[in-house]
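Field: COMPLEX_INPUT
Field: COMPONENT_COUNT = two
Field: RESIDUE_TOTAL = 474
Field: MODE = joint
Values follow.
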Amino acid sequence: MTHYLTRFWLLVLLLFSSGLYADDNPPVAVIAEAFVEMHTGPGRGYPVFYVAERGEKVELLKQRTSWIKVRTMPRGPMDVDRDGNPIPGSNTKEGWVRVSSIAKAEDEYGQPLALNFPQLENFSDRRWEMGIMLGDFGGSDVISGYTGFHFTRNLSLEVELSENFGSFSSGQSATLNLVHQPFPDTRYSPFFTLGGGVRKTDPRSTIVQTEDREDDVLVVGAGIRVYLSSRFLVRVQYKQHTILTNRDDDIEVEEWKIGLSAFF
Amino acid sequence: MENWTKRFLLIPCLYACANAYAQDENTPVIEPELDRREITADSIDTEDFEIGVFAGFISIEDFSSSEVYGVKAAYHITEDFFFEAAYGMAQGDLTSFEKLSGGSPLLNDEDRDYTYYNLSVGWNMLPGEIFIWDRYTFNSQVYLIGGVGSTEFAGDSWFTVNLGAGFRLLLTDYFAWHIDVRDHVFDRDTFGEDQTTHNIEFTTGITVFF
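Field: COMPLEX_OUTPUT
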């Protein structure tokens, strides 16, 4: 019995260690630019402490925003400390390079690397979009967060969570929307949207003591996306909400919002 | 008997060897290296998301100050800007009036629960390095942050604007320590008329990048 347990634990250990060590073999790139500046951190303000030259091999360790952490291949013997022990890593350099500065790098066999980095020109091919919006919902303040997935260049699906704060009631809504942009290649890109979801209304506690309500809601709207930079867009939109109450009349509410989003 | 067993075992061995040689004849002398690795952007680990916990103190206007706990997540869009979503919990104490008058409390315990969430945009205004003696160098960022959200307190939720600044010290590439000061501003009419309240929060926390 103990044998089986030991074996089991060894297997588990093996599985985990193989998973962990998979990262120990990062991809290698050969620099094709005349030189590449290595910074101490992932940002333009961090000082350049080493310049890698054309033909030098670097391991690509990780990426943060548009910076890649690289490690040069060991060159020469390791330095030794006072007691004569070698200092690991002393014959390599580890630093951050801008992705665009090693865009021409090749792999060990001379094939160009497929490193991609965001450029404004490619905005119409992006897949994901997420953002924060702020505005007016039938006279009350409203805030929203949303995430969208572009499954074709024209169509995207968005999940939007909103909360509004009125003098008589506040409310929360969750909607799923289909968004169509007829001109995906223009930097000022109009869109139309259609969706539905649920809406919860909580009357203000200081006004009246009534029950919270939960209703279905239908949404139709239009707006415009303005692509600002390689990662940001501004979005202005109008939506009409039809709240399907269980009273005699449905409620129609107009909503205007402006938001800042990232796309990638 | 022993001989028989030996022979019996040797024969399969021989066969195996013969087969191995036969296979060797078919293989080319130089084996092309087929172990190529396709390097795409996906084979590099990106660490743009940050997730963590924080704890500290918040001064809830009129309702004394209390401990606050929460979670937050951030997405780093560029080296300069990031989106952050946070959720925090605290508990309002008695107002000075309630303490001095000794009368019945203005709010029940449930309505004293102060919870908030917010969606903010941060700007890494001062990226830098911190040097500790000759030995250690850590990257750091001082950021300005502001956003909108909702605060639930005194039985209602209130549209809340938050503004503040923070300091992020990266102890390793993926592990950071934060200090944050944030003002949560919202209008509430709990005492009859609308008043703008400033709820200043001081927190510290840890986050990991992944």
